[in-house]
Amino acid sequence: MEALKPSSFSSFYLSITNTRQPKTQCDKPILNLPFNRLTKSSFSSIDSSKEVKPKLLSSLSSSVSTEPINLLEQENQIHKQEEKFDWFLQWYPVMPVCDLDKRVPHAKRIMGLDIVVWWDRNESEWKVFDDSCPHRLAPLSEGRIDQWGRLQCVYHGWCFNGSGDCKFIPQAPPDGPPVHTFKKACVSVYPSTLQNGIVWFWPKSDPQYKDILTKKKPPYIPELDDPSYTKSMGNREIPYGYEVLTENLMDPAHVPYAHYGIMNTQASKNREKADREGGRPIEINVQKLDINGFVAKQENGTNKFLPPCVFYLSAPFSSNKSNGSVPSTSSKKSSSVAQRKVLLLFICVPVGPGKSRLIWAFPRNFGVWIDRIVPRWIFHVGQNLILDSDLYLLHVEEHKIMELGPSNWQKACFVPTKSDALVVAFRKWLNKYSNGQVDWGTSFKGALPPSPPREQLLDRYWSHVVNCSSCRVAIKGLNALEVVLQVLSIASIGILAATKQGVISVAARSSLVAMAVLTFVASRWLSHFIYKNFHFHDYNHALR
Question: Listing from the earlier edge strand, what are the strands of the sheet with 355-361?
Fold first, then answer.
């Protein structure tokens, strides 16, 4: 079951920074992902084929410094006339297709736009519409797909085909004017495509963008289409914004602390452990930064940010464990281990101020059979715990940043070490090309929503379960099993009560009593398991 370990999407951060065998730093870790020497990944096909010459950020030249990094402020002054990033001229991921039900329309919000994604069986394509009926602006996502494969608004029954044309208005007289053909009766349609098992859309419905796919495509990840790699994905609605989500995924130094006890991290054997968690300096060098993102080397791994949504880390995987035996020096074995590859892909979707969506995938070319046998929800239990363990911290952090103003991030935060290089580079990119934050256009004024109660903030059911096909099936099955156990418990007690003394043997009565007790205890345990893993699981750092 060694290959199960890469499913932890955060444990990779510190694992790639050491080529030595790991020492366990956490009690009862859920998942572990050790890496060894870097191997070239086909992920490189995403970026330009040109050779990138290292150009280290001057602010990151020292592992420890007593001076705050003023790189962002300097760049903001120098590049006021720099080319700006247009957030509405980009491809955005909607959802993994494995989590979309073809029988119903799905409501999503991206870049402040309310959209509905639905399966057009007449054209055998996923369609993305404006989630608003032209009649009275009712949400089309609350509608249904009728027997002719049209999207029907359930408010008054208006029907639309895959091109957004209104095909039927029940209230219009058959012998009257064809009002359904009027332009105002049509729904706005966004360009969309299916790539790498994800539905993408272009947030402009103007006719000039109808063929945008021929001019610009979403970033392509070849491993997700490679049959020799796993393709398991997950998604979750996040109660803090795109900026904080992205920079947190770029921060390897927080892993042994914010996720303590959940995953293992590797500590250097050459460095004395200074604290319980085993944090250490991390060498990260940003080599290129422009409007198309940036590339960085993290000792034995490569990070790449492709704005607006894609961030990934590629590194080799090694499952060798130190067991006291002499390691083999066979070149054949070493070659076999070196060929093992795992990619950690994070797709950060801006939803609105204070809200984002995370889609993750960890394609690997070993242990593929495990993903074919083990259901996705088993992996999601651990991955959701990782997200929960620092969720509250990041939610509060975002509110503090907004109070100070996003453009003042570099003044408020003290980031003197190289472990923060990716975070600094991301904030530099935001400052240089987007005035320090997402440009929502006219959708929002930028104010954050108020903080909900902690239980609502850490809710898993509405943020993940309802949007995950595997977890939806799992919770239905587990709820049914809980009811069965309760019925068996009650039935056993009923049989005992209805049976006269002496009709059944003492052994049989004892068996019924034992069954009643065991099934009742099992139902209570299962109820707790369901609530803890599919609804709410608090995380208290002080008691870890």
Answer: 233-238, 355-361, 341-352, 310-316, 301-306, 293-298, 285-290
For residues 2 and 321, what is the distance between their CA atoms, to the nearest angstrom? 11
- Mind listing the pLDDT tens digit for each residue in 138-170? 999 999 999 999 999 999 999 999 999 999 999
**pLDDT average, residue stretch 430-442:** 91
**C-alpha 499: how far from chain center:** 56
Q: Which residue, 399, 123, 34, is CA-closest to 243?
A: 399
Cα end-to-end span (Å), the chain? 26
What string of DSSP letters covers 95-147?
EEGGG--TTS-EEEEETTEEEEEEEETTTTEEEEEESS-TTT---GGGSEE-T
> 355: helix, coil or strand?
strand
Q: How far apart are CA 266 and CA 167, in angstroms?
A: 61
Contact 388, 257 (CB under 8 A): no
Q: What is the pLDDT of residues 254-276, one digit of tens each?
A: 988 888 888 776 666 666 777 88
Contact criterion met (CB below 8 Å) for 398 and 240: yes
| Both tokens assigned to 161 | 């085909």
- DSSP string over 90-101: S-EEEEEGGG--
Write out pLDDT tens, residues 309-367.
Answer: 999 998 776 554 433 333 444 444 444 444 788 889 999 999 999 999 999 999 988 88
pLDDT at 478: 97
Mean pLDDT of 229-250: 95
Side by side, the strands of the sheet bearing 198-201 are 92-96, 198-201, 192-195
CA separation for the pair 127, 201 (Å, rounded): 9
Q: How far apart are CA 36 and CA 315, in angstroms?
A: 8
Contacts of 510 (CB under 8 A, 6+ apart): none
Which H or E element spans position 37? none
159-160/166-168 β-pairing = antiparallel
Instruction: Please tell me the distance from the alpha carbon of residue 195 to that of residue 211, in angstroms, as a whole number.
Output: 16
Three-state secondary-structure class, residue 287:
strand
Give 72-96 pLDDT, tens digit per residue. 555 555 544 568 999 999 999 999 9
Residue 55 has pLDDT above 90, yes or no: no
Q: Sorting pLDDT into bands at 50, 70 and 90, what band is 540?
A: confident
Count of CA atoms in the C-beta half-sphere (13 A) of 176? 9
* Beta strand 310-316 pairing with 301-306: antiparallel
* Mean pLDDT along residues 476-504: 90
Two tokens, residue 507: 């052994």
Structure tokens given for 440: 């929502």
Q: How many CB atoms lie within 10 A of CB 165?
A: 16
In the block, which residue shows the tokens 């602010």? 59
- Answer whether 298's CB lies under 8 Å from 252's CB: yes
